[in-house]
Amino acid sequence: MGENGKKRIWRNCSTMKFHLIIFLLIYTILIPHKIYAQENFESEIIEYKRILESEPESYVALFGLARALAFSGNHQEAIKAYSNLLSKYDNDADGLLGRGRVYAWMGKFNKSENDIQKVVKYHPSYADAWSALGDMYKWSNQRNNSIEAYKRWMELEPDKSEPYVARASVLIENRQFSEARFDLTLARDNDGDKYQIDMLIRILNRIPSATLWEFTVSQELQTFTPKRENWNTTTFGVNRELANGSIAIGGLKTERFSIGDESLFIDIYYELWRNSYANLRLDAGIDPTVIANQITRIEVFQSVGDGWEFSANYRRMEFINSKVDIYGLSLAKYVGRWYLRENTSIIPKDGKLGYTNSVSIRRYLSTIDNFLEIRMGHGQEEVILRASSKPDKLTRDFISIRLQHFLSTNFGISISGSYNDEKGAPIRRVFQLSLIIRN
């Protein structure tokens, strides 16, 4: 059949379908038992089969039977019913779409794609078809294609919330959190389901690992000017994602002043109330000499409005001969692929207050796992300067830069460097390389 003939069939089907849909609306009011109102699929199946005995060409009955079989879970029978309809109404858009959806539910994604692609090819303004195509690609783990299909759905129905939520869910799976956050903002503006949107935003706020398990090992080198002995630290850890948070355990070994110290840590993230989560970290030294005996840190995060995030934190560092308490507040904002954060820390000691102000600017790249971050600040810090466990409070200026990139789904690297100018102490440079393995 030539191209003109195909187009003629589509036009004829569309005209005929318009009249049949009107008839369907009237007919569903008149048929016994109010089939559509009750959504009683078994009754529908019986009724449509009865109609087809006397009217075997009835589009209403053919389509209604296929639909009822599909939603009642009789997928094989539904495929036969849709195929029967299509044998009588060649290339019917709703018939192809219905059969394509059922194929997708059955996991027969190639057949599903073939049917639904025919619909969007000849009916590019059919929003439900783009929705179904996005679903099929999502279920078959073709996320980029799913994102594009949902984008077309969004363009056709920009005032609905459903396409934005649908695409956001795939963007989250694809680790494109910045784009997902933007879509969810639009969904909220379109009066979308608040519970569903909040559930997805909770994922964005905590930034979970992409897999259940994550292993990290890092090596840190600190050099000084005027030159003196370098400091080295090796850290390892394993992280396990949980339903409402994560837990990581690990340890580190550090060498300073020709003295080796070791410590263990546990790091927990846990979701609290709406749009809130907490982070608790405990570090315990193993008979340390130059590092803290114990460090306890807790921070509570709260997201509000359009991409704003507040947090409050407390940290206690316990050394052999002293203790240091640090209180902090931060304000952060997501702007597209940018994450901006200001943090202020207060250190009360000996009747005086010390402080540190810092600003960090993070630019997310292709996904949430790939980013470039710059951090800078000024203020006081408790620093170990001698081969003892008593810290000194110094004024410092610092700047750091960090790049993290995943070379594959399961393997990433992080490289960072910082410059610290501490008054009364040598200039300190810190270099760190981390390897991340996910499973």
Given helix and strand content, the structural type is: alpha+beta
Biggest sheet architecture: 14 strands, antiparallel, barrel
Specify the overall morphology: elongated
Mean pLDDT: 85
Walk across the major sheet and give the strand order: 1-2-3-4-5-6-7-8-9-10-11-12-13-14
Structure description:
The chain is of the alpha+beta class and 439 residues long. It folds into three domains: 3-149, Alpha Horseshoe (Serine Threonine Protein Phosphatase 5, Tetratricopeptide repeat); 158-206, no CATH class; 213-438, Outer membrane protein transport protein (OMPP1/FadL/TodX) (Porin), CATH 2.40.160.60. Helices cover 38% and strands 39% of the residues. It is built from twelve helices and 14 strands. The chain has a 14-stranded antiparallel barrel with strand order 1-2-3-4-5-6-7-8-9-10-11-12-13-14. A hairpin with a 3-residue loop joins strand 6 and strand 7. The radius of gyration is 31 Å and the shape is elongated. The relative contact order is 0.06. Mean pLDDT is 85; it is low at 1-38.
What's the SSE blueprint?
Blueprint: H1 3-30, H2 35-38, H3 41-54, H4 59-71, H5 75-88, H6 93-105, H7 109-122, H8 127-139, H9 143-156, H10 162-173, H11 177-189, H12 194-206, E1 213-225, E2 231-242, E3 245-256, E4 259-271, E5 276-285, E6 294-304, E7 308-318, E8 323-335, E9 338-349, E10 352-364, E11 371-383, E12 392-406, E13 411-422, E14 427-438
Antiparallel strand pairs: 1-2, 1-14, 2-3, 3-4, 4-5, 5-6, 6-7, 7-8, 8-9, 9-10, 10-11, 11-12, 12-13, 13-14
Helix pairs in contact: 3-4, 4-5, 4-6, 5-6, 6-7, 6-8, 7-8, 8-9, 8-10, 9-10, 10-11, 10-12, 11-12
